[in-house]
Amino acid sequence: MSKTWKQGRLALMKLAMNDEQESPLQHLRILDLTQRHSGGYLTRLLAQYGAEVIKVEALPGGDPLRQGPEADWLNQGKKSVAIDLKSPEGQDLIRSIAVEVDVLIENSREGVMESWGLGYERLSSENPELLYVSLRAFAGKNASKAGLDLNAVAASGVGEWFLERGPHYAAPWGDLVAGALVPALKILMHLSNPDRRGMKLMSSMDESVRSVFLLRAFESFQDPPRPQPGTLPHSRYYRCSEGNWISVNASSQKHWQRFCEAVGQPGWRNRKDDIHLTGELERFFEQNPSNYWEALMANHDACVFRVVPLSESLLEPNAKAAFLADPFGWAGFAPSAGLGAPPSLGRDTSAVLAAFGVTGSALQALYDRKVLFQAEA
Length: 377
What we know:
Blueprint: H1 3-17, E1 29-33, H2 36-48, E2 52-58, H3 71-75, E3 78-83, H4 88-98, E4 103-106, H5 112-115, H6 120-126, E5 131-136, H7 149-155, H8 173-191, E6 199-204, H9 205-212, H10 214-221, E7 235-239, E8 245-249, H11 253-262, H12 277-285, H13 290-297, E9 304-306, H14 310-313, H15 319-323, H16 349-355, H17 360-368, E10 372-373
Parallel strand pairs: 1-2, 1-4, 2-3, 4-5, 5-6
Antiparallel strand pairs: 3-10, 7-8, 8-9
Helix pairs in contact: 2-8, 7-8, 7-9, 8-9
C-alpha cells in the first residue's frame, strides 16, 4: 500500500469526519481473519474506536462463534465477507484485500496461513507497511498445537492459581485479557510510532496470561519464597455467616491498623503477615453476615469491601452498560455509540469486494462456484 494512497485516504476521512476525539482509529483498515472470542473481542474494540474492520468468515458456516449468545455484540461495527478460504480463488481475494489494509489479524494454527499462501512473507512483499498480527494459544514447545482459553491458562505456569478454591473458572481470562487486551496494546503501541514499518507481531495467550500474574511470580522468586496470596491474613476473601463473602486487602500498615480498630482487635496490629492469624479471621468473619461487616467498615477506609453478588449488581441503574463498558474508556476517547446492528454472515461480501475491484461477471462467477456467500437481505 503506497504512502501517497494512505495519506490521501487519511486526509479525505478527516475532512469527512473530522472527529478524532470520538473515532481515533478511523484512519485504520483492519482485515480480520480471526474466529471465536479472542480475535472477535480484539477487533470489536478496534471497530468501537472507528477502525474499518473487514471480517472475513470462512465458508461453510462462518465464525463458529455465530452460534453463541455473545455473537451479536462481538460482531457489531464490522463488515462481514464470507469466502471459501481453502479455494485458490478465495485466497487470491484475500491477497487483493491485504494489499490495501493497515493491519491483518489472524488466529489460525501455526502454518495454516502459509499453506494458503497468506503468510506474512508473501503478503508483506506486496504491502511492506502491513502489520501482520498472529494470535496464538501457545508459544514455545506447544506453538503448533490447537488450544483454547482454558488450555492456554493451564499451560502458562500460573494455571494452578485458579484452582486454589476448587476448579472454578469464572471468566475467560485467556481469551479476553491475554488474547485480546494484551495484543490490542501491542497493536496500538506499534501504530503510535510515526516511523513504523511493517512487521509480523506474535502474541500468545500463555505468555500474556503469565504477565497478568507477574507480581505474584516475583513472590515465588524470593529466597525463601514469600507466603502466597490467600495465606496472608491481610489480603484474601473471607466467608461470612450467610454464605456470602467479604474482601480484605489491608496490605499496608495504615490500612491494617484501621481494620484492627474497626473490628475491635488491637491485639492483631502486629500480626498483619502472620499466616497463623488467617484461621482466626476465618472463624471471626463467620460470626456475622457480610452486610454487617460492610456497615461496620463503612467509615474506616481500611480496604475492606463486601463481595457483591452478580444478581445484586444487575439491579443497579445502568448495570448492563457498566458490564459492557469498554476497557479503554479511560483513555479520553469516546467509543462510537453508532456501531449499528451486527452483520449477518456475508452481508457485505459484494460491497466490500466491489470496493477492491471485483465487480460484475467476475463477482457473479465466484458466487456461482460457491467461493463467496452473501445472506439475503
